[in-house]
Amino acid sequence: MSSLKDICSALPLDPLPPNRGRDPKLPHAPIRTPNLTAEEERLALKNALRYFPPSHHATLAPEFAQELRQYGHIYMYRFCPTLRMRAYPIDQYPCCTRQAASIMLMIMNNLDPAVAQFPQELVTYGGNGQVFSNWAQFRLVMHYLSEMTEEQTLVMYSGHPMGLFPSLPSSPRAIITNGMVIPNYSSRNQYEKMFALGVSMYGQMTAGSYCYIGPQGIVHGTLLTVLNAGRRYLGSDDLKGRVFVTSGLGGMSGAQAKAAVIAGCIGVIAEVDETPLRKRHEQGWLMEVTSSMEHCIKRELMRKATFCYILLTSLSYFSNFLIRERLLLEYQRTGELLVDLGSDQTSLHNPYNGGYYPVQLSFRQANQLMSTDPKGFQTTVQESLRRHVEAINKLSDAGMFFWDYGNAFLLEAQRAGGKVEKVGGGATEFRYPSYVQHIMGDIFSLGFGPFRWVCTSGDPKDLALTDDIAATVLEGISANVSDRIRQQYNDNIRWIREAGKHKMVVGSQARILYSDQKGRICIALAINQAIADGRVSAPVVISRDHHDVSGTDSPFRETSNVYDGSAFCADMAVQNFVGDAFRGATWVALHNGGGVGWGEVMNGGFGLLLDGSEEAAKRARLMLNWDVSNGVARRCWSGNSNAYETIQHTMEENRQLRVTMPFPVQDERVLDRALQA
User: Fold this and answer.
1) What are the helix and strand counts (H, E) for the chain?
2) Which end of the chain is less packed: N or C, by CB atoms within 10 Å?
3) Where's the Urocanase N-terminal domain (predicted)?
4) Helix, coil or strand: residue 507
5) Alpha-carbon distance 653 to 370, whole Å?
């Protein structure tokens, strides 16, 4: 068993560690199909070997070549540490600065088998959301961080540590970019080649920025989505007895079961892979598991209490679309519609490499076809998506309210020929709205988004105290806000007051809530003061999901409700990354891809270490002001009235903030006359 000191001692070369290969007890990523030419295979192997001195090339080259041909990528399993991956208390990391130790803690949490989807392939969530491309990179990064001073910055190129470069104490300790590809070459096929060559990487959102906190990270957002869907579509805050049908339990989608229970509705979630299903059940996130569709129908008919049901089989015929087909059959037979709300959270940003399993094949058959006949698998997936959409359309006609969960479901269904077009709709609109357009968009325009923190002590008592601090702060602010804002605060106060009893911690001692700019700053400053006072025993990392007010330009998700023609522009996310960097972030990240997939999104995030110092308070105040106001200002300029009011109020509170405000066209006839002339 290795130690933290061992894994921070650079690459183990004398002697080389034994090659244990894949651990059969762990789930593994699907085989990738980069379709490299012979010359490209040669280049991939050459690129991998450059991490090692020539004296080891004869030993490593054959096994790396075998990995490339067998799995479609060189993961360097030989260098996977035997030490249990988890977020160890910050004081246990060998380092010269706690800022570096906080990054090490967050990296190891992302690779914790309790957290990561495919830990040995360094995939945190989403089927292909990488922390690093290979284990050599992990070891080099940990080594650099252990030696880093506060006058150095670690530069990361798509998983590859370019090195430590001189900088200032006020500079970020790490600058991360993932998947920064020339736009004309940012296609799926090009990505598969570049990843196999080891020159680019898909970091999803918080996988490649080291800020994932387990499925809890999306539980709260899913809870708010379901609650607000009930308010919008069903006209009620009370979801007792209502049925929410969706699919996916692998990574972030594992949050759906817990969110349904907290919201008070009946959740029916399909999952075709037994491994994540059992994992969520053992973690207590699922209340019941069944492989019987008829049993599920009977349970839905009961509608007596809050339940969470899971459909399990190793066969795809119990996946989400056939749940809907069976519900449709029940409706046609009896006239009773057994579903009220519907969505889908499969990894359709990655539809042909394990993100979506088609109805026609068993789980095992699908994985086999995926690697042996990629084009045939693609055809099968697209046929399945058309069938999926047909069932959704019929249930929606009968009264089910469906929304796209930002996973590229409608985008890929449209590409497959599914009937999801919106007559007269714009480029980002479909027959069904995305949850941003109809449910969460107003929240973003008000400045609310997923703020989170991690207690680096690993002590649950610190987390409980920070929960109480956050709730108290929000309760104080909510007394003096408008009714519209107060509802958001009340939802979050309820969430944070009940968070402990729902046992949502998986991995690090972390928490998430949705807050606006004022709330985030006040919570951060209050936690920082508690560290200074010794009430919280160790520093706290604050962060957020990239899926936020300012962090992501994504025309089919985060910016799908931007209608001035700029939905496909990415200035906001890039500006946010740069602005966070020089306003005090401990580390920053900018990614191509995330959520709806490679080439479809630009997104970024940050981590900031609160250590109880005045300097940390100054950084938090300055950076969080920018991190929210940037996106609200952009949404205001696009014509969003809620964002207009929000940024106007923010300018009144902060006289140093001056935003260019739009003048709306009040008389459309001016345009008509000008264009007719």
Assistant:
1) 23, 17
2) C
3) 85-211
4) coil
5) 56
